[in-house]
């Protein structure tokens, strides 16, 4: 999962520093935790901020990122958690998760976006949710494009907000958090 935009933003120290002064640094974890998950896959986990907070709240987490420096920092911060160095689009794990979270522009930074969404869907338990947030700006995916990738992967978008704190979304907003859900009837094809 590497793009020119990501290459310019991949310094782990700078990545962590940007969260130091944020008013709600755990908005992503708050939203994910509101669904009561037992198991969460934090895709594009970076240095582990969201996964570590969810684990602190008693959720079993798996952190996955394609950047070795980011995964290295996550492992240093929380060696008791499982961190996997992998491109999400190529991930094949036996576990199924109640939530897969893609926080912090994971989708636009991915090169193979439809494949990334399909891989995330493959790892959801029946009824599981894919929760993704990303900026909406020229040259990046639109919420409608993302919804199409979700539908192709067997997921149904059920909620959308402009922030992780559930501010209502309006077309033209600069950020979208979308929750797409797997059917409660069966696991995804190919799982």
Can I get a quick summary?
By secondary structure, the chain is an alpha/beta fold.
Structural shape: globular
How many structural domains can be distinguished in the coordinates? Answer: 1
Radius of gyration: 15 Å
Helicity range of the residues?
A: 25-40%
Strand order within the widest beta sheet: 3-2-1-4-5-7-6
CATH topology: Rossmann fold
Distinct helical segment count: 8
Determine the mean pLDDT. 89
Sheet with the most strands, sense and barrel status: 7 strands, mixed
What's the SSE pattern? HHHEHEHEEHHEHEE
Main structural class: alpha/beta
**CATH-level-4 superfamily name:** Vaccinia Virus protein VP39
Strand portion:
25-35%
Query: Which CATH top level class fits?
Result: Alpha Beta
What's the helix and strand layout?
Layout: H1 4-7, H2 12-20, H3 27-33, E1 39-43, H4 49-56, E2 60-65, H5 68-77, E3 82-85, E4 97-102, H6 106-109, H7 113-122, E5 124-135, H8 143-152, E6 155-161, E7 175-182
Parallel strand pairs: 1-2, 1-4, 2-3, 4-5
Antiparallel strand pairs: 5-7, 6-7
């Amino acid at each position: 999962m590497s793009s020119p935009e990501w290459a310019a933003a991949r310094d782990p120290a700078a990545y962590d520093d940007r969260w130091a002064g944020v008013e709600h640094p755990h908005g992503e974890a708050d939203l994910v935790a509101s669904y009561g998950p037992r198991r969460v896959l934090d895709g594009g986990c970076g240095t582990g901020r969201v996964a570590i907070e969810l684990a602190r709240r008693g959720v079993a987490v798996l952190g996955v990122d394609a950047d070795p420096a980011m995964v290295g920092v996550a492992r240093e911060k929380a060696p008791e958690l499982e961190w996997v160095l992998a491109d999400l689009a190529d991930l094949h794990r036996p576990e199924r998760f109640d939530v897969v979270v893609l926080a912090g522009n994971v989708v636009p930074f991915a090169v193979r976006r439809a494949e990334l969404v399909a891989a995330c869907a493959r790892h959801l338990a029946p009824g599981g949710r894919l929760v993704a947030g990303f900026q909406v700006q020229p040259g990046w995916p639109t919420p409608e494009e993302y919804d199409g990738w979700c539908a192709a992967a067997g997921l149904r978008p059920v909620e959308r907000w402009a922030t992780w704190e559930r501010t209502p979304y309006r077309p033209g907003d600069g950020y979208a958090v979308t929750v797409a859900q797997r059917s409660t009837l069966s696991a995804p094809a190919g799982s």
